[in-house]
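Hi Y.,

Following your request, here is the sequence exactly as I used it, all 437 residues.
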Amino acid sequence: MIRTLDARPGIDAVVTALERSPEAVAPEIHRTVDSILADVRARGDAALCESTARLDGWRPAEAAELTLAPADFAAAERDIASDVRAALEYAADRIERYHAAAMPKSWRMTDEHGSVLGQEIRPLDRVGVYVPGGRAAYPSTVLMTVVPARVAGVREIVLVTPAGRDGRIEPVVLAAARIAGVTEGYRIGGAQAVAALAYGTRLIRRVDKIVGPGNIYVALAKARVFGEVGIDMVAGPSEVVVVADATADPEWIAADMLAQAEHDPMARALLITDAAELIPLVAAALERQLAALPRRAIAEPALRANGALIRVGSLDDAVTLANRLAPEHLELLVAVPAALLARVRHAGAVFMGGHTPEVVGDYVAGPNHVLPTAGTARFASPLSTEDFVKRSSVIEYSRGGLRAAAPHLKTLTRIEGLAGHGSAAALRLDRDGGRGA
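Below is the corresponding structure, written out as tokens. Let me know if you'd prefer a different format.
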């Protein structure tokens, strides 16, 4: 059911065996996305209503019906059970505390000439948050995308999420939005929602940035509008790599692999271990647990196509292989996880020790669950408050600082052939004459 690979002869061969074939997105999907974007850009709200009716099966009588009113959010809060509200508030509080601690700061430094250099941090004015919906509810994604934006100081946070065929949004999603701090919301999804956020319509003002996961249409649309607006990332299928030694519980490993595999048939779940005896135990545990898994029809093909149990010669080799894969989630199910952490270079999130299943990161730990996938952890980072702010450099030179820089400015502007640049500095020094610093 799940393949077994041996990396002891060489890690390169295993990396090659695990490579996904480049997924060719059907040309008609590209054409559909381009058509939707162009239509919304040209016709605005009318195109939004028609796309919603055609693609989501719900036909708003007028564009105003796409709007989620304050009463909708208030009613949703009243409708959810007390334990659901408590769970949402618990998660929101932890997410807020973590992201507040990670908030980038403005700063200043003064050099030897008294010149002041630094950085100012300013929040974006308006962001759009895409939350998948329609057939399922994802309140955790609401919290993970909205709370960091609010912590960063974004004043306008716009929720878009597709409605069901009756035009209804799950109350738990709207309740999470209210708890998190959404300031306005709309019953739209797909590429048409991305287009509305990026270009603006009469109903919806354009945003500065779009964040949040979605299907292939949403992902392609976000990639297309980048430059018109900012985006967080283009996410692929979810993935987990479990690095385990002989102390790890095979049942725990199997459960964590299945928790990832049940997301999507394209999800990836891998075990890397130096303990040969662990591999058959995990394989057996996967079979047992899979038999009782409600989403077996999703998890089983994911394990078969994208899963693997991999033997390595040492835990050092395990980390080397994990770094090559640069996974979204990396679990260190070993006796001393801190001993391996220093060597981990590429992972979206690292889960340390047996009592830290990846699921706590999905929901309540605090760090973001919007993470780089498909090896992009080599250069990308989790969603954070940094995604909702801009940095501006601050430069305030003293006269002495400008005098010290002058000969170097003269040389550099001369070799680049930009005489006007050099004059801009020289004129100031001529005017200053013999004045002091």
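The mean pLDDT is 95.

Thanks again,
Q.
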